[in-house]
Each structure stands twice: as structure tokens, then as C-alpha cells.
TrEMBL record:
Similarity comment: Belongs to the SIMIBI class G3E GTPase family. ZNG1 subfamily.
Protein name: COBW domain containing
Pfam families associated with the record: cobW, CobW_C
Reaction catalysis annotation: GTP + H2O = GDP + phosphate + H(+)
Every CobW C-terminal domain range: 263-364
Gene Ontology molecular function terms on file: GTP binding; hydrolase activity
Domain CobW/HypB/UreG nucleotide-binding: 31-218
Encoding gene (name): cbwd
Swiss-Prot/TrEMBL keywords: Chaperone, GTP-binding, Hydrolase, Nucleotide-binding, Zinc
Keyword Metal-binding: no
Xref: InterPro entries: CobW-likC_sf (IPR036627), CobW-like_C (IPR011629), CobW/HypB/UreG_nucleotide-bd (IPR003495), P-loop_NTPase (IPR027417), Zinc-reg_GTPase_activator (IPR051316)
Keyword Transport set for record: no
GO cellular component: cytoplasm
Length: 372
């Protein structure tokens, strides 16, 4: 990594080269951004756009074909029958590309060996993939976790067909893939706006927001989006803390728009919680699934973010969750005073009931002034 930088900066006076802590630290962590979205929404168009834009990064692109029988149409990919993954291609700006057939982890390991050659990974999922399962790859493997981190999930929505994808009924009450992809997005790109009228666009935007009350929504044509909106989002680590604080102020619980629809629920609750009680609350919700809504249906959490106050900890703790996986991380931010500790939660999922979610958490909280 250092060699690459030196080559680049060869002509410059060394004293003027800014010190980037990332490059100086022992192990450089490489961010991975997952690009998801329904079939044909504009994911590859977005990848190509990112690669050709000015970004001063060496980007590795992984095209992910988990479980898909059909051949990739990608002009970027090279096909070699019978091989797990395919040749690396050199792209513009020294970027790299490879196509992953089955085992995402293997491909990333392969990538890691070439780590010196790039500093960002973009992973395009197939249109029907559950980005939650893909993002889990970066959470379950601790060793990998030390080299790569999940930066964010970008969901591309087809402005013309998005509504149709979202309203499609699934058998046996399964979650609609298009809705799940929106629920998991940290950034949602509503693409192909050239193909629809403003009123349709407003309606689609409204539905997207009703599903995900947390994500930033951007409208595009040909997936042309300012790269600062896509890369380095830090959506899954404690650097989001400030960001999250600010977002909470604007965010509210959304109302369902479609049948069995996915919504966002937010709430605040003051006080502190014992770590074991927090784990119990999250595990009841995510693992046991024994917290039901008023109709008796278990709540299904797809995405969760929270800022919590753990008893005896001076620092704010951030909780991140995707489906059954969750993680707590201490932030660098201290609580200002013991009396003003405010826990804040965002849940995105199905069959959610704000009142019940809040009540269950609140029951485990030690209110200011109370002793445990
Ligand atoms: N009219 C219009 N067409 C677009 C726009 N963006 C992309 N397309 C076209 O839509 C088609 C699908 O785009 P891709 O980028 O391949 O979509 P994808 O999500 O990667 O598709 P899959 O990988 O097959 O799921 C291509 O023919 C693009 O040229 C847009 O903003 N407007
Ligand atoms: Zn594609």
C-alpha cells in the first residue's frame, strides 16, 4: 500500500504529502460497499460510473453470482468454466475486477492477497440476493473482519418498475426481495427517473421512505451520483455515531403502505441498561423472535441501529444489526452527564409495534436516579 502511494506522490515534495492515518497504521482496513437492487435497476451502471469517476482510489470490483444459474452479462467479467472465480481484470484507474461464483469468502481471501493493489471493494449482488446474507459474510468471520469492514449497503431502485417489484405478493408470506433490499439500504438510489413522471416518482419515493426511515434517498439517471454519497459511509461502525444522533432528530416511525409491509420504528428512552439485559432484549427480538405485535405475529427485524447507554460505561455504545446478527461497539463519545442519557433506537422490519418495542426495552432500563 505504502509503495503505491509513494509512486503516486513521487513528484511531490514529501513534506507536503498529507499524512493519512489509514496508510500508516499496521493493518489497513479495506472498506467494502455492497451494491444491491432488483434485476436491471442499474447496479452495473453505477459500478461503471464509480470506476470512471475521479476517486483517487484503487477499487476492486466483485461481481457476485451466488446461487444464480444464469451467466453474467457483464462486459467486465471473464468466464472460465468450472472455476470458482475468474481472472482478475485490470480496469481503468488501476482498478481490479473479478466475478464470484459461489463462495464469497474465498474470493475475498483471494482479494486480500492482492490487498496492496487496491483500497476499496465494491460488491454487486445479483438482483434477487438478500443483501443481509451478503453483508453477514463480513460480520461472521472475525479474521476477515480485521482486514475488511462493511462500509455500507447501497440499494438501487428502478424508478419505472420499482413499484411493481414492491407490490408483488410472495407465497407463504415471504418477505418481498425488493422491499428487503430497500430496508437494508444505507443509501437508496432511485434510478431511471427519466422514464417516469414526477407524480409517479413522488409516490415511489414516498413508499421507499415508508419502508426505510433512515436511509438517504437520491434520484438519478444512469446512476450518476456524487461519489461522496456512496463511498466511505461508515454505516456499520462507531464513526456513524454523530451522524446517527443528527439523523434521529429528523426521523420518525413510518406507517405501513403496502400489505404486510416493512416499516421503520424509532423511539427514545432515558436511563441506562445492564449489558446482559440489553443482550436479552436483542436476543429475544432477533434470535428467539418471541416478541409479538398486537396481532400475535412475531416481529421480524431486518435492520437495527441504536445508541445505548450501558450502565457503568462512560462512552456511548452503538448497536448495529442485520437480521439475526448484531454487534455492539463503544464509540469515542462520552455521555455528557448521567441524568441525560438517552437511548435511541431505529428498527426496520415487519410486524413491528413501536409501543411494544419501547415497553420491552423500557422495562429493562434503570431510570436516572434509580439504582440497579
Ligand atoms: N432509461 C434509463 N435506462 C437506464 C438507466 N440506468 C441504467 N439503464 C439501463 O438499464 C439496463 C440495466 O442496467 P444495469 O446497470 O445492467 O442494471 P443491473 O441492476 O446491474 O442489472 P442486473 O445485474 O441484471 O440485475 C441497462 O440497459 C442500462 O443501460 C437510466 O437512468 N435510465
Ligand atoms: Zn448488473
Amino acid at each position: 500500500m505504502a509503495d503505491v502511494r509513494e509512486e503516486e506522490d513521487e513528484e511531490e515534495c514529501p513534506e507536503l504529502v498529507p499524512i493519512e492515518t489509514d496508510y500508516n497504521s499496521q493493518s489497513v482496513q479495506i472498506p467494502v460497499t455492497i451494491i444491491t437492487g432488483y434485476l436491471g435497476a442499474g447496479k452495473t451502471t453505477l459500478l461503471n460510473y464509480i470506476l470512471t469517476e475521479q476517486h483517487n482510489k484503487r477499487i476492486a470490483v466483485i461481481l457476485n453470482e451466488f446461487g444464480e444459474g444464469s451467466a453474467l452479462e457483464k462486459s467486465l467479467a471473464v468466464s472460465h468454466a468450472g472455476e470458482l472465480y475468474e481472472e482478475w481484470l485490470e480496469l481503468r484507474n488501476g482498478c481490479l475486477c473479478c466475478s464470484v461464483k459461489d463462495n464469497g469468502l474465498k474470493a475475498i481471501e483471494n482479494l486480500m492477497q492482492k490487498k496492496g493493489k487496491f483500497d476499496y471493494i465494491l460488491l454487486e449482488t445479483t438482483g434477487l440476493a438478500d443483501p443481509g446474507a451478503v453483508s453477514a459474510m463480513f460480520w461472521v468471520d472475525a479474521e476477515l473482519g480485521s482486514d475488511i469492514y462493511l462500509d455500507g449497503i447501497v440499494t438501487v431502485v428502478d424508478a419505472k418498475y420499482g413499484m411493481q417489484h414492491l407490490t408483488e405478493e410472495k407465497p407463504d408470506g415471504l418477505i418481498n426481495e425488493a422491499a428487503r433490499q430497500i430496508a437494508l439500504g444505507d443509501l437508496i438510489i432511485v434510478n431511471k427517473t427519466d422514464l417516469i413522471h414526477q407524480e409517479e416518482l413522488d409516490e415511489l419515493r414516498h413508499i421507499v421512505r415508508s419502508i426505510n426511515g433512515l436511509a438517504k434517498i437520491i434520484e438519478t439517471q444512469r446512476s450518476r451520483v456524487d461519489l461522496s454519497n456512496v463511498l466511505d459511509l461508515h454505516a456499520f461502525d462507531s464513526q456513524t455515531n454523530e451522524n446517527l444522533q443528527e439523523k434521529f432528530c429528523h426521523m420518525q416511525t413510518t406507517r405501513p403502505h403496502l400489505d404486510k409491509s416493512i416499516i421503520t420504528v424509532t423511539f427514545e428512552c432515558s436511563g441506562s441498561i445492564l449489558e446482559e439485559d440489553l443482550n436479552q432484549y436483542l436476543q429475544n427480538l432477533l434470535w428467539e423472535k418471541n416478541i409479538n405485535n398486537k396481532s400475535g405475529n412475531p416481529m421480524e427485524i431486518i435492520r437495527l441501529k441504536a445508541l445505548v447507554s450501558i450502565k457503568e460505561k462512560t462512552q456511548q455504545v452503538i448497536v448495529q444489526g442485520v437480521h439475526e446478527l448484531y454487534e455492539q461497539e463503544e464509540t469515542s463519545v462520552n455521555w455528557e452527564s448521567d441524568t441525560e442519557r438517552l437511548n435511541r433506537f431505529v428498527f426496520i422490519g415487519r410486524n413491528l409495534d413501536k409501543e411494544i418495542l419501547e415497553k420491552c426495552f423500557s422495562a429493562a432500563v434503570i431510570k436516572p436516579g434509580e439504582s440497579s
